[in-house]
Design a protein that fits this description.
Layout lengths: L9 H8 L13 E7 L4 E8 L4 E8 L2 E8 L2 E6 L3 E6 L4 E6 L5 E6 L7
Antiparallel strand pairs: 1-2, 2-3, 3-4, 5-6, 6-7, 7-8
Amino acid sequence: MDWNYIKYDEHELFELFESEPMIPTIIEEGIFIYRKKFDNGVRISLNFSIHEKKCKIFMSINGDMLFETILKNVEYMRSDGKRLRIHQKDSDIDYLIYFYPNFFVKTEDVPTDKLR
């Protein structure tokens, strides 16, 4: 898989974040921000540029930062309805953002046969 932009399904992201993305610039620039707040005070922000193939994950609780990372060479984002998998080209680790039943972020090894 070698795409010139991040592959994702906007309907999957809408279901996980329960809202449309905030679009800070012209939609043709392909920059999107999704945000969600949970009842326990945890907030998640997913910012990505489909053309630059970059993705930023930011988590906070009651205004205090818990986690932040910037992923480069992102090939795709996929959801199974409960979590979002973010895959980077030539990386042996995927980032998973779990939304249900509990919210958390973890990394997972990518099977060797899936790497190219």
